[in-house]
Amino acid sequence: MSLCANPVVRCQGPLSRRSFFQAGALSVLGLGLSDFLKLRAIAQSSGTQLADNAVIFVWLPGGPAHLDTYDMKPQAPSEYRGEFHPIHTNVPGIDVCELFPRHAKIADKFTLIRSICHDFADHGGAHKRFMTGRIPATPTEFVNDAPAVASIVTKMLESRRRNALPPCVAGVDSGRNHIDVFSLGSAYLGAACTPFIIAGDPSQKDFRVQNLELTPDMATRLEDRTHLLKGMDRLRRDIDGSGMMQAMDRLSQRAVTMLTSPEVRSAFDLSREPTSVRERYGWSAYGQRGLMARRLVEAGCPFVTMVWENPFPSAKIPNACTYNWDSHAVNCDIFEDSRWRFPVYDQAVTALIEDLYARGLDKKVLLVVTGEFGRTPRLERNKGTETKVTQPGRDHWPGAMSVLVSGGGMRTGQIVGATNSKGEHPIERVLSPNDLWATVYRHLGIDYNESINDFSGRPLPILPFGQPIAELLPSGTRA
User: Fold this and answer.
1) How far apart are CA 127 and CA 13, in angstroms?
2) Global confidence as pTM
């Protein structure tokens, strides 16, 4: 079954409470940004001195087929190896799909991990397993029972904020911005720790980051609202001894800061990039989200998630292709879909890697590219829902998957782990998503052995198990 959105309209609360928020923040302007800031609600910082590093996490929902991308098996029987052939790269021993010619030129700048695996074959269970670093309570559905890594990063890096940018940003297609679509929920950390989500296709001329633009009329009302807030200070101090009103004032001021901050507007403004750079990334949702991610981390945002589903969400999907990476035979002809999708992906991910290196960000910024699982090594053949003809595809397969990692000052130009001759399961260096997240936390300067209290005040570890992947760490460092 295809991974699909289930947009939900969020409840705004009782009228009296909503009216208070309108007076106490900026929601009267129709600017959901202040709602986001209120939800973040003064998360407690860890007090730990953190490294000035960042992560770009590219999420490929549906799960790419490892046998058709980064772990090809040309000697396997035809019902396993598929239609594509591997090509050599500029690093001896690293081969990639023939549809990735740009990858082949820069393999020295990335590492392929071929041995990550887990036990959840449903999209929901796999999303929760991967996004949280925990074994989910249920194997299906997308609502987290533990906080997503982005939420933990938001909480732990609150003290590191040096500008008006939120600590975590996520870019998604329009209609895919509900927090549970990709299991990005914050669970017991509360909605205060959810990422700031940007929905839409940044490759389109009319793309705008909602909530960050002020029309002249809105600017006037913003000024009026600021005066109103100042005028209410004395009343709030008189009626509220708990400090909540003052907290709301601080959050409202933060909303004003974000709305009026040139650095925030600049970070999201792709039009500031030369046309040649935008063209190198490609005029696709993949490419322009990748470019936005680079701009955000360069501006000081420590954790950016960019979701790459449909490469061209504003256009009609070609026949025999599908929306995201969920390449069942009923959804698409996996090889036709790949011929459409892979060149766009090849261009976007290599542009991002090359750009990070060219701008001297390869030590500071760690790039991780992955889906929630791999695809079945053995091909399936079923009648396509749209094409009405029998076509090849691959089902869900958490037993093996491939992950691309680049930058972060880590060792590149290598392969970590290996699967058996049919790509069914790891036979070397068996790893889990937790080992990947331990590596990410280490890069961000977060002690993954620390605990965070749940709603009841019970301390729970940031990461219940897992160790940084030693092969990635710079020479002479310890996990």
Assistant:
1) 29
2) 0.84
